[in-house]
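Supplementary Text 2. Reproducibility record for the structural model of the 341-residue chain.

All settings were left at their defaults, and a single model was retained for analysis rather than an ensemble. We include the record here because the model underlies the residue-level annotations in Supplementary Table 4.
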Amino acid sequence: MEHTTLVAPAAPVAPARPRLALNTFGIAFGTAGIAGTWTAAGTDLGAPPVIGEALWVIAALLWIGTIVRYLRRAGGLRAIGADLRHPVFGPFAALVPAIGALLSAHVAAALPVLGTIGVWTMVTLSAAFGAWFLSSLLTVPREPGTLHGGYLLPTVAGSLLAAQSLGAIGQPVVASGFFAAGVLFWVLVTAVLLGRLTTGPALPAPLFPTIAILSAPPAVAGNAWWVITGGGPSIVHTLLVGTMVAFVLPHVFLVHRYLRTGFAIGFWAMTFTAAASATYAVRVLTAGGAGALGVVAAWVVVAAATALVGTIAVRSVGLVRSGGPRSGATAAAGAVAPAQV
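Retained model, structure tokens:
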């Protein structure tokens, strides 16, 4: 008699949870930026306040949702630590407390206690990460090819957005200290990045949109100083507006490069720069005595920033539906530092 051995089929193995790159937080960051633009438009241009409020809610949901998705990834704390030390994606971790600070500052207008606690918490986290990141820069040499515009986030954006958030909760003295630190690191880090970009190697296509981050500091600093001082024309704003225009104009000649670059989630790196610049422009144009011409110009920049963010949002939805939301991040890591990923 023959004996047949029955072998139970192997249990299906669940696929590993996809790795969520830290630059994905740029989606919530850009949304918070355009929410700020529409809030300023509501104050200075009479736009419906509900638009800004709706965008703030969307930004909060995106921020919380991205945090939850990121923390659920495989690898636990060890994987998170590896991400923070990653030469390409590590700087984007600064977006987590930066977004939280912006959201908390907005909440503070309606819920002062909750908003104030949130701002101080996020500012503390931002300062801690910025200090740790700077210590890493000073002790762990990096290949020039891994440097990109995102390196402005931990120290420059973190400090300036902390200044703006603290100013919003009535802490102008501490805010001024963060503002000074942000301006200092803006000069230092931008000098390093310009040297890297002019001498090469060339940025890989997925990281090319991070060039837009280099144009953000003048507007972010301007918005912070506006909140700290209560707004109004001043020599500081004259200097910052001139600097903002000088940094934004080169992008006119880069439009063809952006259009030729394959779309990826990394394009969200452009959105906060556009939104912050629009917010600052709205404030300056409506407070500078330009009259009806200033109002029209302000609406033009609001429309342009909204169109840019909206277009990138629509393209992102299409990217997710096609199953390729990680393609840009993965390609960037492989192209920039294959030996370090």
